DNA sequence: GTCAAAGTTTGACGGCTATCGTACTTATAT
DNA sequence: ATATAAGTACGATAGCCGTCAAACTTTGAC
């Protein structure tokens, strides 16, 4: 059996599906963690508080929207953020979600008074 | 009775609520129409295909997320896009949704063969 | 005062989806 | 070969949300 899942092409990315993927806090957290490290992360290595089966569901939604790419390394399924392709399809969207303001703001440092 | 609804302050805008407002195609269409004209539009003057009561619901969601400001002019409720304030709270988000790519692309002109 | 126009409110309904547990599959280590 | 680890697949469930119709409110026109 083939263990490599199908990934959509950039030309088929669409805003509706991407927004539906990103509106869920757990999925957005996954994307943020990938964006923060710029490295591949195994499904089980994310800091999320849902069961494994629920996590699988979230990764599927992210993959089908084109946000992540998945491949196996042993028994671990590694996840890569498709940053460049998403930027090409929907310029500025991921940038907007990764700004300090989009996160909670309050970056410490000059913590107002 | 006061007919002016309450509007959230910029400091209380939050990404989750804004994304939940923008993920619905009808509501995103409302925002796009407001962004395209840069003028106030009455609730009944939008090109949307839902009943009046459903439209009321959508406007409420948009207002509570901070995306629009509403005020009465006679019996008509006018809607204003809070563009500058939203840009301050979540820089780049509305820009990302109004790019040609975010829309259907295919802007005609050089319609590839 | 009467009527029409523009929205709101309320209640109901249906479908979608995030969630979980259990069983299953695949690969690695012993 | 056995056991364990990492995910997947499959129901099942519960809650939310978009939708509408009907009744109501408010304003402006006649």
Describe the SSE topology:
The structure is a homodimer of 113-residue chains.
Chain A: H1 15-22, H2 25-37, E1 41-42, H3 52-65, E2 68-73, E3 76-81, H4 83-89, H5 93-98
Antiparallel strand pairs in A: 1-3, 2-3
Helix pairs in contact in A: 1-3
Chain A binds a DNA duplex (30 and 30 nucleotides) through residues 1, 3, 24, 26, 42-44, 50-60, 72, 74-77.
Task: Describe the structure in your own words.
The structure is a homodimer of 113-residue chains. Chain A has 113 residues and is α+β, with helices and mostly antiparallel strands. Helices cover 42% and strands 12% of the residues of chain A. Chain A has a three-stranded antiparallel beta sheet with strand order 1-3-2. In chain A, strand 2 and strand 3 (76-81) form a beta hairpin. The radius of gyration of chain A is 15 Å and the shape is globular. Chain A binds chain B through residues 15-16, 19-20, 22-23, 25, 89-93, 95-97, 99, 101-103, and chain B through 15-16, 19-20, 22-23, 25, 89-93, 95-97, 99, 101-103. Chain A binds a DNA duplex (30 and 30 nucleotides) through residues 1, 3, 24, 26, 42-44, 50-60, 72, 74-77.
